Amino acid sequence: MKLKSIIIDDELHNQKNLKLLLEMHCPEVLVLAMASSADEGLSLITEHQPDLVFLDIEMPRKNGFSMLEDLQEVDFEVIFVTAYNKYVLKAIRSCALDYLMKPVVISELQQAVQNVLKVVEHKKENHKLKTLVENLKNNQGPKKIALSTADELFFVAVDDIIRCKGENNYTMFFLTDKRSILVSRTLKEWDELLSAYGFIRTHQSHLVNKKHVKSYVKRDGGYILMEDGSTVSVSKYKKEETLRELAS
C-alpha cells in the first residue's frame, strides 16, 4: 500500500530534502503536499486526509505540538522531525512515538516508515499519538506515558507509578493497582523523563514517585517506606538530595 503523506516544515530546503529521501528510499510513501507553517499544514490535512504527516516541531508563530492541539481529531500517523531539544524529545519519547533528528538518517527514516505501515495496515488506533495530544492539552491533569514490553504497549498515568527499579538495561515499574511492568529501557532514561513529575532518584537502581512516599526511616543507614509497604534504598551519595526533594 501507499502511505498518503504530507510534509510540514517551515524551511523549504528541509521539505525538499525529506521528499527526495522518501522518493529514493521509501517507495511506499506518496507525498501529496508540503506546508511551510502549522496553519497551512492544518488546511492540507483537512484537504488531503493523509495517512501520515512528517511534522517539524519548532516552527515560528505556531509549533507542531500546538498544531496537533488545534485538531478536533488526530486520525493519521505522525513522524516528528526535529533538531535537538531535550524538552521536545522528552514529550515524544514518553509516548514511545517515532521521531527523526535533523539531518535525517536514511535507515532511521525507513524504520519509522515501516512502523507506521504496520499500524495503518492493521487499522490500529494510534494510542501513542492520542496520549501525546492529551498530555499537551491537559496541563493540570495526570499525564500518561507509554510503557512498551515485548508483547504489549501499556498507557499508564504518571500518578499511578509508585516506583521504578533498574535491572541492567531494563526497568521494572511498580503501579498502584499492584501490577509490575518490565520495560527494556534503562533507569537513567526514565529518570530524565520523570524527574519533572516529582520522581526522585534515590539510588543507582531506584526511582520513586514522591507522591507515594510514606516516610523516610533513619535507621539501618536510611531508607524510604512507600505507601504500598515496599522499601527503597537511599545511597549515601543521594541522601542529602533525597531529603531535600522530599521536604520540598
TrEMBL record:
Residues 145-248 form the HTH LytTR-type domain. It comes from the Bacteria. Residues 106-139 form a coiled coil. This is LytR/AlgR family response regulator transcription factor. The keyword Glycoprotein does not apply. Keywords: Coiled coil, Phosphoprotein. InterPro entries: CheY-like_superfamily, LytR-like, LytTR_DNA-bd_dom, Sig_transdc_resp-reg_receiver. The modification 4-aspartylphosphate is found at D56. Residues 4-117 form the Response regulatory domain. Pfam families: LytTR (PF04397), Response_reg (PF00072).
